[in-house]
């Protein structure tokens, strides 16, 4: 008669087996977490401004149409008049540049429309949409861009866009949290 003997697994073998499954499970969870999180675009906010030449030139509706058709949500918007101190503070990073005084004059020459935009990768998407700083060059190199459509030159370029997520946070807070005394609200629409 056939006899089977069940021998107990030695302690060492059981311990090795346990470790094997433990590490297998650990690396499996790690790789799943990486593949589901890596490279995904994330929802982000940026600050957009339609500058005085954009408002004066009646480009607001056309710019907002492009914004919405490009998949941005306009979370907040308001029309404000900057004074010299607040415009200088907003563009403080350029205070040593030769064009700074002229930039402050331009940004205070009339009301501006400020907007908080939201979308996946909003900061870089909005910068791509507005095109290069110099609108006269944008008309040649990026004819589909917003600055090509409604800007004029290196200064009067119709729109602003935050240049990094950190700038976006600072600029959104500048207009919508702290609201310096030199920024006068003309029309306010918290959407
Ligand atoms: P923005 O901050 O308004 O979105 O413009 P940007 O990043 O494309 O360009 P930036 O270097 O930050 O310059 C800020 C604004 O200064 C005026 N500017 N004038 N005359 C000039 O050579 C000159 N260069 C820049 C523009 O209005 C520019 O948007
Ligand atoms: Mg800039």
From TrEMBL:
Compartmental location: Cell projection, Cilium
Catalytically driven reaction(s): a 2'-deoxyribonucleoside 5'-diphosphate + ATP = a 2'-deoxyribonucleoside 5'-triphosphate + ADP; a ribonucleoside 5'-diphosphate + ATP = a ribonucleoside 5'-triphosphate + ADP
Domain Nucleoside diphosphate kinase-like, chain residue ranges per copy: 43-184
Record's signal peptide: none
Gene Ontology MF terms: ATP binding; hydrolase activity; metal ion binding; nucleoside diphosphate kinase activity
GO biological process: nucleotide metabolic process
Active site residues according to the UniProt entry: 160 (pros-phosphohistidine intermediate)
Family, similarity comment: Belongs to the NDK family.
Protein name: Nucleoside diphosphate kinase
